[in-house]
Write a structure and sequence with these properties.
Number of strands: 0
Structural class: mainly alpha
Shape: flat
Helix content: 40-55%
Number of domains: 1
């Protein structure tokens, strides 16, 4: 787990601090929708709004909560920033654990 603390769903899986690593390297569980490059801005705005609204419905929230997750429904720009920061953090975690691509 690359979170600060163990999670209820996986209580026996060590968290990042249990491994003696910095909390600065924590990452979060996230899901998102990716689309092809070049989607017209008006269509992108429509899709973004629809996904943000869907993430806040009782049904989606209930499904995610049963899995130990929170529904956020961020903007496309916020999601892009999250993906970039998570990639950097996960690369650093892998490096500190001595993992490398084969």
């Amino acid at each position: 787990m690359t979170t600060d603390d163990r999670i209820l769903m996986l209580p026996d899986v060590p968290a990042i601090k249990d491994l003696g690593m910095s909390g600065d390297l924590k990452t979060i569980l996230w899901r998102g929708i990716f689309g092809p490059k070049g989607i017209p801005s008006d269509r992108l705005a429509t899709l973004e709004k629809a996904f943000q609204q869907a993430a806040q419905t009782a049904k989606v929230k209930s499904i995610l909560e049963r899995q130990g997750e929170d529904a956020v429904g961020s903007s496309g720009k916020q999601f892009e920033e999250l993906v970039r920061s998570e990639a950097a953090a996960n690369s650093e975690v892998a490096k500190q654990l001595g993992l490398s691509p084969k």
